Amino acid sequence: MQYIIWIILAVIVIAVLYVIGVYNGLIRLKNRTDEAWSDIDVQLKRRYDLIPNLVNTVKGYAEHEKDTLERVINARNRAMSVSGDDSKAKSEAENQLTGALKSIFALSESYPDLKANQNFLELQRELSDTENKIQAARRFYNGNVRDLNTKIQIFPSNIIANMLGFKNREFFEVENEEERKNVDVSF
Questions:
Q1: Cβ-count burial of 165 within 10 angstroms (0-12 exposed, 13-18 middle, 19+ buried)?
Q2: Does the pLDDT value for residue 59 go beyond 90?
Q3: Which of 27, 36, 54, 73 fits a disulfide with 141 by CB distance 3.0 to 4.6 angstroms?
Q4: For residues 133 and 113, what is the distance between their CA atoms, to the nearest angstrom?
């Protein structure tokens, strides 16, 4: 009789330790995913700070390109106003901003003096560097989302995840099909 009690206690202890292990793993993945999302926000903030400088530099050379510059500023403002927790809306707004920025760089092709301007070249280099960092942060975020979603969905951790209220996260994706196409660059 005493052996049965010890066996039952051992099974209970193992089950509790398993639940604690799964819970801690889920929390670790959730925190890593939150950190990755924060990394995206940091790089987006850097991009938002660079855009006004870039627009002001271009303004001096391309006064009659007001529509293009306004589209960039409006896209920036929309992207900044999206709630940080809504990854789908944030992704859509960021994709629109990326498209608007491409139009500014296309403008530089029409203005040789602008292309040669040191401020423009430096801002273009910094913005390009920031775009690369944003892409890396998105990949890091998506990798963490994949790991978290997998842990939430696989058996038997899915039972514990559902009981404790863990939810799948959305990937940071390109929504616009135009963004997926290769860019045609011609000089």
A1: exposed
A2: no
A3: 36
A4: 28
